[in-house]
Amino acid sequence: MTIRPPEKIKETEHSVLENTAETEQARPLPAEEAKKYTVVPLRYPWRWVTAALVLVVLGFVAKAFLAADINYDVVIKYLTNAGILTGVRNTLVLLLASMTLGMVLGVLAAVMRQSPNPVLRWVAGGYIWLFRGTPLLVQLLIWFNLSIIFESFTIPGLVSIPMNTLMTPFVAALLGLGINEGAYISEIVRGGILAVDHGQREAASAIGMSRAKTMRRIVLPQAMRVIVPPLGNEFISCLKFTSLAYTISYSELLHSANKIYTANFKVIELLFTAAIWYIALTTIFSFFQQLLEDRLSRGVPGARVGFIQRLRRNLSLRRAS
């Protein structure tokens, strides 16, 4: 049995009384007493000051654009110009082809990085190191001038094509964008693979599944939920990087706008037209990315409820009512 000194007993009684007083203060006041008090919301004056400054800056920018010698009717007119639409089509073809090639190379390199074979790991690591370490524009120019190194593309006994004939602007842009994207996508896929619990692989191995089948049937499907958001960002980045193909004379959107404003000298108007098309395509792809993210996150505890899911839920509740 422990006997406390009188000082400790007094301290304990004092703390108990303080806790009791705090509890009584925390209790809600009766309605009659609550009416005696006025609730005053907190004021945030610097928020209003910051908002006012932002509005002033935006006003100056808008005034500058409106006062500039820009014919906005020309911007709208050329949105549906045949040359611009051809550039949009070529941009989309290059984007989809490059991302397909990048996805194949990225998944392959990510799987090779996880291989127990050291040669495969080093090859994949070297590929990622090389193409992440050099600017995309430099890669495009190297591909386009590959005939300086190789005079022809030859498969002995089958085919021999001069490199100048084979390496068209589209092929050079496809290889430059696709292989460069593959290096970045491989790191995104590898991060998604590492996010899957290692116990999943052990369980698959326990029931006799091979490494390749485990990766294809167990790991990659679960990793998709982690992979899709950064992969969507990479897709949109690749859309904007297609404009670099302008330097090797591929007729994408920016190159088409350049050909038009070289003839009519409406430089800023045609650049605005190209910018509007890039923004429109980015918005559309972002919408589909959100749809895919919502689809993959269904049934996941704690997952964010997306706009599309909320819209579907509201529509179903209206129909039920």
Automatic annotation (TrEMBL):
This is Amino acid ABC transporter permease. PROSITE patterns: ABC_TM1. It is found in: Cell membrane. Pfam families: BPD_transp_1 (PF00528). Residues 1-16 have a biased composition (Basic and acidic residues). Gene3D superfamilies: MetI-like. It is a multi-pass membrane protein. The keyword Plastid does not apply. Keywords: Amino-acid transport, Cell membrane, Membrane, Transmembrane, Transmembrane helix, Transport. Residues 88-289 form the ABC transmembrane type-1 domain. The chain crosses the membrane at residues 48-70, 91-112, 124-146, 158-179, 267-288. Belongs to the binding-protein-dependent transport system permease family. InterPro entries: AA_ABC_transptr_permease_3TM (IPR010065), ArtM/GltK/GlnP/TcyL/YhdX-like (IPR043429), MetI-like (IPR000515), MetI-like_sf (IPR035906). Residues 1-28 are annotated as: Disordered.
